[in-house]
Amino acid sequence: MFRIGDKVAHPMHGAGVIDDIVSERVGPASQDYYVFRMPVGGLVLKIPTTKSQLVGLRDVVGAGEISKLLEAIPALAADMNSNWNHRYRENMERLKSGNLYEVARVIKGLKCREKQRGLSTGERKMLHTAKQILLSELVLVTGMDYGYFEEQINTAMVGG
Predict the structure, then answer these.
(1) What is the pLDDT of residues 107-138, one digit of tens each?
(2) Would you tell me which of 32, 111, 136, 146 could form a disulfide with 14, CB atoms 3.0–4.6 Å apart?
(3) Which of 108, 132, 119 lies closest to 42, judged by CA?
(4) Are the C-beta atoms of residues 136 and 2 closer than 8 Å to each other?
């Protein structure tokens, strides 16, 4: 159970803060919701408290894990299926996992593919989403500048 003020990560939207916990009537029953706000972009979501685990809502990683992630990115495998449909599904599963290493693999793989062959519109959107997910957590955990981490990620993706 999260509390107001907790920093959490949503697998498909990135990191944010639990702003409030509200109770709303849905039909005959009342249900509690986390009011999840993302500092970057201002997105606000209401997530049923009973479904937060199913959705994949989790605590953000610690600052130490951020350092490990940035060090690990150059060595991450960036192999991708040549079939667009299979590649898209595999990447979507990686994003939905909520695992930052898997999100970084999606970014690295799509950036490599972009260099070699270019990306479809769907894959360009997925690359943008993956970057937002990763960067939002890095920025929220450390309080450092968005541009700083974008540069760090771009530099790390070149390695390996």
Answers:
(1) 999 998 888 888 899 999 999 999 999 999 99
(2) 136
(3) 132
(4) no
| Phi, psi (degrees; rounded to nearest 5) at 148 | -60, -50
d(CA 137, CA 148): 13
Q: Tell me, letter by letter, the H, E, C secondary structure of the chain.
A: CCCCCCEEEECCCEEEEEEEEEEEEECCEEEEEEEEECCCCCCEEEEEHHHHHHHCCEECCCHHHHHHHHHHHHHCCCCCCCCHHHHHHHHHHHHHHCCHHHHHHHHHHHHHHHHHCCCCHHHHHHHHHHHHHHHHHHHHHHCCCHHHHHHHHHHHHHCC
Residue among 65, 13, 74, 71 at smallest CA distance from 39 = 13
Of residues 77 and 40, more confidently modeled: 77
Rounded mean pLDDT of 137-160?
A: 84
